């Protein structure tokens, strides 16, 4: 068994499978992944097995990148193919939302109107690339019912990227806005989504910081460590950056 890097400890690969720690959401997530495949969306792991400790899903062949975005993952092709995958995943998940019974478990709070299942962390490090082409979405732990724009806003924050940390940032503000526009176009965002995007992005990041604080207060060690490492400060700086440049961002997106 090979240990996989790029995420938490405790993630392993056998020849064609990935073994990850299970949690209270795993059963719901496995149902979601099965549903996506039944709907013809095959660019996500297939659920293979689940017990109290571990989940097993299929391994997606390709390369996974992280920040700073360099090489294939920084290409326009990676950006637009990622946006295409997000659109297809959302579309395939809409019928899952219609079938929800209310006894599902999600890590993040349901957000109304629950149009689709949002991935919740549609960042470069949760996509698998083949060359410059995004070919699979992985790590559905943070998936939850929410409006499309909730996921779109966070994905664009990660892919533009509107990040200020010296390790994560890429390009000028103009480049970032141009990349945001390309992502929206490839997704097929409506005018309504575009006109709300900067505000939703800010709200999404504020919700993330609140969630980190709440979980840390409840005793969640991973989030306590995140706060100690100052992750919330980076998000707060990015909120400020987006707020300061909101008008220019909005003008470019909606013209
Ligand atoms: N189904 C998969 N197919 C291919 N690689 C995977 C898969 N699941 C995880 N990985 C690899 O393992 C790493 C960590 O997995 P991930 O599920 O993203 O963990 P975490 O939940 O800690 O972020 C990923 O960056 C990726 O390289
Ligand atoms: Mg991950």
The ligands found in this model are: adenosine-5'-diphosphate, magnesium ion
CATH architecture classification name of the largest domain: Orthogonal Bundle
Helix coverage percent of residues?
40-55%
How many H/I helices? Answer: 8
Q: Tell me which oligomeric state these chains represent.
A: single chain
The structure class reads alpha+beta
Domain Aminoglycoside phosphotransferase: 107-166
Pfam families: APH
Protein name: Aminoglycoside phosphotransferase family protein
InterPro entries: Aminoglycoside_PTrfase, Kinase-like_dom_sf
Give the gist of this structure.
This protein is α+β, with helices and mostly antiparallel strands. The chain is built from eight helices and nine strands. The N and C termini lie far apart (52 Å).
List the helices and strands and how they pair.
Blueprint: E1 2-3, E2 12-13, E3 17-21, H1 26-38, E4 47-50, E5 54-58, H2 76-98, E6 116-118, E7 127-130, E8 133-137, E9 144-146, H3 148-159, H4 173-187, H5 191-217, H6 221-228, H7 231-244, H8 246-254
Antiparallel strand pairs: 1-2, 2-3, 3-5, 4-5, 6-9, 7-8
Helix pairs in contact: 2-3, 2-4, 3-4, 3-5, 5-6, 5-7, 5-8
The structure holds adenosine-5'-diphosphate and magnesium ion (MG).
Adenosine-5'-diphosphate binds next to β3.
Characterise the protein shown here.
The chain is an alpha+beta fold and 255 residues long. It folds into 2 domains: 2-58, 2-Layer Sandwich (Phosphorylase Kinase, domain 1), CATH 3.30.200; 71-254, Orthogonal Bundle (Transferase(Phosphotransferase), domain 1), CATH 1.10.510. Helices cover 47% and strands 13% of the residues. It is built from 8 helices and 9 strands. It has helices at 26-38, 76-98, 148-159, 173-187, 191-217, 221-228, 231-244, 246-254, and strands spanning 2-3, 12-13, 17-21, 47-50, 54-58, 116-118, 127-130, 133-137, 144-146. It has a 5-stranded antiparallel sheet with strand order 1-2-3-5-4, with helices on one face. It has a two-stranded antiparallel ribbon with strand order 6-9. Strands 7-8 form a two-stranded antiparallel sheet. A hairpin with a 3-residue loop joins strand 2 (12-13) and strand 3 (17-21). The termini are far apart. The structure holds adenosine-5'-diphosphate (ADP) and magnesium ion (MG). Pfam families: APH. Residues 107-166 form the Aminoglycoside phosphotransferase domain.
């Amino acid at each position: 068994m090979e240990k996989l890097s790029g995420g938490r400890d405790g993630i392993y690969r056998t020849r064609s499978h990935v073994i990850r720690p299970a949690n209270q959401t795993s059963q719901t997530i496995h149902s979601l992944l099965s549903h996506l495949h039944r709907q013809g969306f095959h660019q996500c792991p297939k659920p293979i097995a689940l017990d109290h400790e571990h989940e097993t899903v299929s391994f997606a062949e390709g390369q996974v990148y992280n920040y700073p975005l360099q090489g294939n993952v920084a290409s326009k092709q990676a950006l637009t193919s990622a946006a295409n995958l997000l659109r297809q995943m959302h579309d395939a998940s809409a019928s899952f939302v219609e079938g929800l019974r209310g006894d599902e478990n999600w890590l993040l709070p349901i957000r109304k109107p629950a149009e689709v299942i949002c991935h919740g962390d549609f960042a470069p490090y949760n996509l698998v690339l083949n060359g410059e082409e995004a070919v699979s979405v992985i790590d559905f732990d943070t998936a939850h019912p929410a409006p499309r724009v909730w996921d779109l806003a966070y994905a664009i924050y990660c892919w533009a990227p509107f990040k200020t940390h010296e390790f994560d940032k890429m390009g000028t503000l103009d480049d970032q806005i141009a990349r945001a526009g390309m992502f929206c176009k490839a997704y097929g965002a409506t005018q309504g989504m575009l006109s709300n995007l900067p505000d939703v992005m800010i709200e999404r990041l504020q919700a993330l910081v609140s969630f980190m604080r709440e979980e840390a207060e409840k005793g969640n060690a991973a989030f306590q460590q995140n706060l100690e490492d100052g992750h919330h400060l980076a998000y707060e700086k990015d909120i400020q950056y987006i707020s300061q440049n909101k008008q220019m961002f909005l003008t470019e997106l909606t013209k």
